[in-house]
Write a structure and sequence with these properties.
By secondary structure, the chain is of the alpha/beta class. The chain has one domain (2-170): 3-Layer(aba) Sandwich (Rossmann fold), CATH 3.40.50. The relative contact order is 0.17. Helix 2 (27-40) crosses helix 3. Mean pLDDT is 85; it is low at 1-22. It has helices spanning 2-15, 27-40, 63-73, 88-92, 107-116, 153-158, 165-170, and strands at residues 42-43, 55-60, 83-86, 99-102, 123-126, 138-143, 146-151, 162-163. The strands form 2 sheets. A 6-stranded mixed β-sheet has the order 3-2-4-5-6-7. Helices cover 38% and strands 20% of the residues.
């Protein structure tokens, strides 16, 4: 039980907003850590994410996030499952993604991607302004120099995803 408490404390510390300009942490690495932790605190329906299949983390629009996310997941498992990062899947078939991170696109394009995933069990995350207002699940943003996030719980429910109450408690309202 103590091990579980230590893991939860570490996860909470990783999720706590941190300075984007931290000495050894790049912006991409910080965002990748948030994406990884969002995945740790999300439960997919069993038919959407079979236990023996890897979680597919797709990135659209930011090659630096692809590299940072690959580093973040190396040697790690979520719920006993491996993870893979793909930038091609996101472009070709976003419905095949368990997680879709979108960056470097217009708000209209982000909204179009989210609309195409309506009711699909894909955790959508972006740093595009207004992302959660267009149906996205999680939005990363800077607040007083710190990376923060908001979560649109209704969008997560519509996607049949369960977001941990611990993660929801850390989210900011925008």
């Amino acid at each position: 039980m103590a091990f579980l408490r230590v893991r939860v404390a570490i996860a909470v510390l990783l999720l706590a907003p941190g300075r984007a300009a931290a000495q050894d942490v790049t912006q991409a690495a910080l965002k990748a850590a948030f994406i990884y932790n969002f995945a740790k605190f999300t439960v997919w329906p069993t038919d959407a994410a079979p236990a023996d299949a890897p979680l597919i983390m797709c990135v659209r629009g930011d090659a630096a996030i692809v590299v940072a996310l690959e580093r973040a997941i190396t040697g790690r498992l979520i719920g006993g499952r491996s993870m893979i990062v793909s930038s091609e899947e996101a472009a070709a078939a976003p419905r095949a993604c368990h997680i879709l991170y979108v960056s470097g696109v217009t708000a209209a394009e982000a909204a179009r991607l989210v609309a195409g995933l309506r009711d699909v069990p894909t955790l959508t995350i972006s740093d595009v302004e207004g992302f959660t207002k267009t149906g996205g699940i999680a939005q990363l943003f800077y607040d007083q120099g710190r990376l923060s996030f908001s979560i649109h719980a209704a969008s997560a429910a519509r996607a049949h995803l369960t977001i941990s109450s611990r993660l929801l408690a850390l989210a900011k309202t925008r």
